Amino acid sequence: MYGLLDPNEMMKSHTFLRFATMGLLAILVSPKLQAEGQTKDSLLYEVNTRTVLGTGNWAPFLTAANAYDRHSITANNLSVWGILKKPLRQKPFVDYGFGAEVDLNLSPDEQRLFPGELYAEAKVWRFALTAGMKRAVYGNQDPLLSSGGILWSTNARPMPRLSIESMGYIPVPLTTKLIEVKGGLIHGWFSDETVTANTLLHYKYAGIRLGGRWPVRVNYTLHHAVQWAGDSPVYGSLPFTWANYKRVLLGRSGDSNSPDTEKFNTLGNHIISKNLGLELSFPSVIMEMYWQNIYEDRPVHYMYKTYNWEDGLFGFTLRFPHQKALSRFVAEFVSTTDQSGPWHDLDGVIYGGQDGYYTNGVYPNGWTYYGMTLGNPWLTSPRYNANYEQGEVGLKNNRIRLYHVAGQGTIKGVSYKAELAYSENYGITWGPIVRKDQFSWLLDTAMPCPFLPNTDMTAGFAGDLGRQYGNNLAIMAGLRWHGALTW
User: Fold this and answer.
1) pTM of the shown model
2) Which of 138, 170, 266, 380 minimizes the number of CB atoms within 10 Å of its CB?
3) Any domain includes 170
């Protein structure tokens, strides 16, 4: 299916990013940044292997979803990856960090070699500047067991970017920490170049949390993502200019040289998500409830006035700090079937429906990266398309209902993660409604290897049953060797 990719080709990115990364690395190694150290630095390293062996046309869906594209979606595959990372420390006022990961996938149908991460970063007070490809979790969904954020999940590999972000929430002065804020501004490059080449990413978010150390806290965050610029075989050059960047930043229409759809709407492929959460803390359990909506129409001021308020991610997390057998439990419901109604326009009236989540006429690959959905992975990644290699790079299933539960814990020294998911799949927005139901499950375990130091053994099984991904069944086994150097 996919040939072994040239590592030099996989590493290419915008020239400015390469120079920026080199410049940042030069700054990071300067003595000034290291003089503030208050705790020991750590260099973390890992070498991992995992094999998936089974029956079916695909590897079970949950063995590859939300894994940053680290694993192959083909049946009977082997994954090998190595990690080297120096994390940022919380206490020093100034610090530096870096990370690298190399991923290898082998199967009868696919061979891939690519960087899973490659970045450098610097910290000043509670803000971090990052250059390169670094994994990130955006959204208030559970960071470990969620089915995936509605706008940004952990399903696709990280893209090259420059970003400045707060390191979590920052207390507002004179509020005794009752009011906290966070935010970030990101500029990235879609380096996969499927159809519209040299596409750029604009992503920003701003959030607030109320409650401080109270047992009840409320959080609200607005996320805004834009796919823009590039070279289209249909629309020609979509240039990067500061005037266009301002239009993207503020969500304004394009100029007279823009494609017709971007003259009347906004310049670029805009996706917005409002996140609302409630946190309840008790001595024996911590509960977090969250709601993420999605819309591709112009912003509205109130959630209940959003045309497609039925769509989005609805979930809750239970954390049990004093329980080992079940330390974390997540339940979620995802719906994307409304899409602002069945009509975009009717009898001369614009209704703004048929949103077509994660799809766009100017950017045929849509809200994906290297064929993997950037948002919730249950809106099926194009790599599952039968003719993906022949140019069928858009989503073919973006109307779904998903019921998802997951849990993790440790029983007699064996840690585990278990997931169950049932999805109703209704195809693409503009296509005929053909319902395909799917049931997927996974149980993954890990335990220390008794005869190898610093090594864990992993084992599990997973499967699918239904019409969307077919009937697949597989066992998993692997090893993880890890350690840390401190100074």
Assistant:
1) 0.87
2) 170
3) yes
